[in-house]
Amino acid sequence: IAGITQAPTSQILAAGRRMTLRCTQDMRHNAMYWYRQDLGLGLRLIHYSNTAGTTGKGEVPDGYSVSRANTDDFPLTLASAVPSQTSVYFCASSRLAGDSYNEQFFGPGTRLTVL
Amino acid sequence: GENVEQHPSTLSVQEGDSAVIKCTYSDSASNYFPWYKQELGKRPQLIIDIRSNVGEKKDQRIAVTLNKTAKHFSLHITETQPEDSAVYFCAASKEGTYKYIFGTGTRLKVLA
To answer: Which residue of A has its CA nearest to B87?
Structure first.
């Protein structure tokens, strides 16, 4: 693989079900992010990780959890999905080097519908 | 909390005209401002960025200006083309956090 990938591409899920969205990057980026994109609200940060083994909360973390066991993978879990979590989810990654800013590269997105 | 406001939400221009999108940020400590372009059904991609030690940056038909005193920055696209049609997002970030706060997006339509 090259770059950053997400799976699945789309998913329809019954409310109350558990779901894990997968994100993998092969760029050896140390930082990874999960966003949700809703019409009129732009991209909102759910959780992030600056390095393997650490995670942090973004703007809208409730109902979501993440883990960062290694550099490449950053799965996002919805423990009990609700209809308000219907959205397009983007994973992103960037290389952090000291205090310099680096481009965030986005994955292709996962379209999730919770019924 | 930190906030980035973006205007307008939609913008239609004739091909060849200029387009301007404006963003205002709330956190005076913000010092990095990227702009992303998202075509329909695609992922956001960086098109230009600016740091707080620079007032203006240009890349071919695209330019970004920053006014730190007023806490606002703008994207300027000249000689617009149909392929410029997309949603554009501004964002702000500050040293030490690496997190972006995005604006709500501007849907630009370039009319042929």
So the answer is: A42
Contact B44 A106 (CB under 8 A): yes
Per-residue model confidence (pLDDT) at position B98: 74
Report the amino acid identity of residue B17.
D
A85-97, pLDDT tens digit by residue?
999 999 999 987 6
Instruction: Tell me the torsion sign for CA atoms B110, A41, B64, A50.
Output: negative
Q: B32-70: b or e for each residue (b if 16 or more CB lie within 10 Å)?
A: bbbbbbbeeeebbeebbbbebeeeeeeeeebbbbbeeee
B8-47 tens-digit pLDDT: 999 999 999 999 999 999 999 998 999 999 999 999 999 9
- Kindly give, in sequence order, each residue whose CB lies less than 8 Å from that of residue B60, ignoring residues fewer than 6 positions away: none
For A90, which residue in chain B has the nearest alpha carbon?
B43
- In sequence order, which residues have a C-beta less than 8 Å from that of residue A81 and are 6 or more positions away? A13, A14, A15, A16, A17, A18, A19, A112, A114
Looking at residue B29, the DSSP 8-state letter turns out to be T
Band of pLDDT at residue A99, cut at 50, 70 and 90: low
